[in-house]
Write a structure and sequence with these properties.
Elements lengths: L1 H20 L3 H29 L1 H21 L3 H29 L2 H32 L2 H6 L1 H15 L14 H24 L4 H21 L15 H31 L4 H7 L1 H21 L2 H19 L7 H28 L6 H41 L7 H11 L12 H37 L18
Helix pairs in contact: 1-2, 1-4, 1-5, 2-3, 2-4, 2-8, 2-15, 3-4, 3-7, 4-15, 5-11, 5-12, 5-14, 8-9, 8-15, 10-13, 10-14, 10-15, 10-17, 12-14, 13-14, 13-17, 14-15, 15-16, 15-17
Length: about 500
């Protein structure tokens, strides 16, 4: 809950942090980017640590470190300190997430694993979607520091319960050595890929810097694969990917995250900047999404246990595609009722995918690699989220740049220079109307109308692309099957 919550809750606190600490926009971006970068780079290695030393120990260290880093952020009075502790938060979060899945895998027998992952998925979904609501309430009524301080008591409770309840399960043939070169190559590959995705909107997709980092990432992945095929105890045994269901599960998680995170990114701007809602109100409008994920995840777990993952996963991605298509039809004046239908359908579609793809990845991996499999699942989600935000952001920017000059001229508004038009386009991309000070009300209304209509056309196209991604994922879902190694989970190597 802490790790998922901190992925979205901080976005609400960023304006308050910027104002209080006198930060630039680029510095504030690093509060989010530093966290996601550390998380994405470290997840698979952290999963291997759990496989080597035990998931219980790794989980508890992650909990303590994450809570301590959160408290330190709340006490920080400069942006460099906030960013540094956010990176630490991401690293400890990376220890926590795969270890949690490894513990579930080892504790529950095959017939109960899907229900356990369903409850896990419910918590992740609720925390991700509930972050903006809780963040809005805390920032509005307490302070931005409280967004981070809240993790301290949660961490203490998790530590106490973990010490009392969790058992240490280790597979008999757990890895006994570390693939240091593999860790370095994979970390470099992940860093270059996520860095390129983070910086692409600033540098541009045609920039040499963007493609240099993408090229470095591809080269590092190739070198990593070559090394892993030779080393005695590899970080990620390539034989894992001979399992078509496991590979399909990883691809499915990436595609789901592209559609979900990319689409949700624009919805928050739509609610706050086009509809003029407060952060709390926009969070409340996303309750149908949260609610359906909370209700749908355990139900999806039960359904997958009964009939296997293929039909629930394909049905979930089909629902997601329909929901994203519905969101592409939203207009500036669309009422809450119609919005709620599409948000609820999106939540209903995501629930079986979150649960089913996780079970397919973790259940099709050998017991001694459950931590690595959990790291793969989380890394796929992080990369998909970064990819979705970057690619759909580029689609939005391209559409706004293309439509804004004609829409502006068509409304017979005062002509803008090229520099003014670029600045206006930047504002419109997030749904903000570029109304200069002292503009007459009638002209301001016209500018607002043009800005919102242009934003909606960009968001519509981005949601259509997300629809296509979700539709492609329907076919990938048919390549999955129930975890062949899941029955090896419970009762192995209790210490």
């Amino acid at each position: 809950m802490m790790v998922a919550l901190d992925g979205t809750i901080v976005a609400i606190a960023n304006p308050a942090i910027q104002k209080d600490l006198g930060a630039t926009f680029a510095e504030v971006q690093w509060i989010t980017n530093g966290y996601f970068l550390a998380l994405a780079v470290a997840l698979i290695t952290a999963g291997k640590l759990g496989d080597r030393f035990g998931h219980r120990q790794t989980f508890l260290i992650g909990v303590v470190g994450f809570a301590a880093a959160s408290g330190a952020i709340g006490l920080s009075d400069t942006i460099p300190l906030v960013v540094a502790f956010r990176v630490l938060q991401g690293l400890f979060g990376a220890l926590l997430m795969p270890a949690a899945l490894g513990l579930l895998r080892a504790t529950f027998p095959a017939e109960k694993l899907n229900m356990a992952i369903g409850i896990w998925g419910m918590v992740i979904g609720a925390s991700t979607a509930g972050g903006p609501i809780l963040g809005g309430l805390l920032v509005q009524h307490v302070s931005w520091q409280s967004v981070f301080f809240i993790n301290v008591p949660v961490g203490i409770i998790a530590l106490v319960l973990g010490l009392v309840i969790l058992k240490d399960h280790r597979a008999e043939n757990a890895p006994k050595s570390f693939d240091v070169i593999g860790i370095a190559l994979l970390s470099a590959a992940m860093f270059c890929l996520v860095w390129a995705l983070i910086k692409a909107p600033e540098w541009g997709w045609g920039s040499g810097m963007t493609w240099a980092f993408i090229g470095a990432s591809v080269l590092s992945f190739v070198l990593f694969a070559a090394w892993e095929s030779k080393v005695a105890e590899p970080l990620v045994p390539l034989a894992l990917f001979r399992s078509v269901p496991l590979s399909a599960g990883v691809v499915l998680m990436v595609l789901m995250a592209i559609a979900f995170m990319g689409g949700l990114f624009f919805v928050t701007f739509y609610l706050q900047n086009v509809h003029g809602m407060s952060p709390v109100d926009s969070g409340l409008h996303l309750l149908p999404l949260t609610g359906m994920m909370i209700v749908g995840s355990p139900l999806a777990g039960a359904m997958i246990t009964k009939m296997g993952p293929r039909i629930p996963l394909a049905g979930g991605m089909l629902c997601t595609a329909v929901a994203m298509y519905g969101m592409s039809t939203l207009e500036a004046g669309t009422g809450s009722g119609l919005m709620s239908i599409w948000f609820a359908l999106l939540g209903l579609g995501l629930a079986p995918v979150m649960v089913g793809a996780t079970e397919v990845i973790v259940g099709n991996a050998p017991m001694e690699l459950s931590g690595v499999a959990g790291g793969l699942q989380q890394a796929a989600m992080q990369i998909g989220g970064s990819l979705g935000t970057a690619v759909l952001g580029a689609v939005m920017a391209s559409k706004v740049d293309s439509d804004l000059p004609d829409n502006w001229a068509g409304a017979k508004l005062p002509p803008l220079s090229e520099a003014q038009l670029d600045k206006a386009a930047e504002a419109v991309q997030v749904g903000v109307a570029p109304v200069p000070p002292k503009t007459p009300p009638s002209v301001a209304d016209q500018i607002t109308s043009v800005a919102h209509d242009t934003f909606m056309s960009g968001m519509g196209l981005a949601c259509l692309v997300a629809t296509g991604v979700a539709a492609a994922a329907v076919f990938v879902a048919f390549l999955t099957k129930r975890g062949v190694n899941a029955e090896a989970g419970a009762g192995v190597g209790h210490i």
